[in-house]
Amino acid sequence: MRTNRYRLRFLVARLLIAFLGPLSTAQAKRASADSGATTVVIDAGHGGYDRGGIPGQRVAEKEMTLDVAQRLKNVLAANGYRVVMTRDSDVFVPLGTRVAIANSYPNAIFVSVHFNSAKRSGAGGIETYFYSRDSLPLASAIHYFVAGGAPSSNRNVRRRGYFVLRKTSVPAVLVECGFLTNPTEAALAQTASYRQKLAEEIAAGVRGRNSVASARSSTRVATNESIPLQSYIDQTKVSKSERRKSKRSHKKSARRKKSSSKSGGSEAKTSSKNQEG
After folding, report:
1. 39: which of 69, 110, 142, 197 lies 20 to 30 Å off by Cα?
2. How big is the CA angle at 56 (ends 52 and 62), to the nearest 5 degrees?
3. Residues in contact with 60: Cβ distance below 8 Å, sequence separation at least 6, in sequence order
4. Does residue 35 sit in helix, strand or coil?
5. What pTM, to 2 d.p., does this model score?
6. Do 182 and 264 belong together in one domain?
7. Is residue 2 part of a domain?
8. 113 & 240 share domain
9. Do the beta carbons of residue 178 and residue 115 sit within 8 Å?
10. How many CA atoms lie less than 13 Å away from 136 in the CB half-sphere?
11. Region 27-35: what's the mean pLDDT?
12. Are residues 225 and 240 part of one domain?
């Protein structure tokens, strides 16, 4: 009887271990997922033969983005984050490869560093892009600190389907750190102290991303400042409406040309068909 009792206890213990083992593993996975992203994939825009910016631009965007990205890497690493760079030197990395690197770390966030440019030298300011709704808190936090710490104008958070934002499966943002075609902002970007400041402000946004809440919330971060969920300009809708408007204008133009050239022969008809298409 005693032997049978021991055997029964042994079998029960084995069953409990078999049952509780997988349960504790699942709990550990959930705890890891709930702890927040600890890997930051930093993407320095452009590189190699891709200089960035517009033709004739004096300051190379690829150089400024790499310097800020490397400084950001140092700041985040000092704060205990695991950092992965899509490029750490002056090389060209295809967009698909950048996305693949980001997507290979499921518990990560993706930050792409860029500088803006425009034909009008007076254009300036800071803007931050995102695409998926899950990325808005990260965009809000980074924009809050970068735009708040820069002497440039605030061009707001914007939603747009850039490839590196649309194709990533992790929270992803693209921050434009000013216009290199603006004399004032270009002069700032060329100073090491300002690039360091940009890196520190982006890092502050990364650290504060989990503290972002609605404007009515009393959530606060270590600086005792609230980080509201930013309102944004949805440029995905703007681009669609512009495409529809462009298509309508092409059709109207084609109809006008077709009606005014009925006696012009087959060449005019062929031309109007091509324009309408």
Report:
1. 197
2. 20
3. 51, 52, 53
4. coil
5. 0.72
6. no
7. no
8. no
9. yes
10. 14
11. 36
12. no
What is d(CA 112, CA 164) in angstroms, rounded to the nearest whole number? 8
Give me the pLDDT at residue 257, please: 38
The parent domain of residue 256 ranges over: 236-276
Mark whether 270 and 160 lie in a shared domain.
no
**7-21, 156-170, 172-186 — which is least confidently predicted?**
7-21
DSSP β-ladder status, 126-130 and 172-179: antiparallel
Classify residue 13 by burial, with Cβ atoms within 10 Å: 0-12, 13-18, 19+: exposed
pLDDT digits (tens, 9 = 90+) for 99-117: 999 999 988 999 999 999 9
Residue 159 bridge partners (DSSP):
130, 234
pLDDT tens-digit map of 181-234: 999 999 999 999 999 999 999 999 999 999 897 533 433 344 445 799 999 999
Rounded distance between C-alpha atoms, residue 209 and residue 200, angstroms: 14
Are 202 and 28 contacting, i.e. CB atoms less than 8 angstroms apart?
A: no
Q: What are phi and psi of 176, to 5 degrees?
A: -95, 110
The answer to whether the CB of 146 falls within 8 A of the CB of 179 is: no
- And the tokens for 100? 């693949």
Contacts of 220 (CB under 8 A, 6+ apart): 211, 226
Give the model confidence (pLDDT) of 137-152 as tens digits: 999 999 999 999 999 9
Distance of CA 226 to the CA centre of its chain: 22
Higher local confidence (pLDDT), 270 or 230: 230
Q: Is 126 strand, coil or helix?
A: strand
Q: Are residues 220 and 187 in the same domain?
A: yes
Do 115 and 225 fall within a single domain?
yes
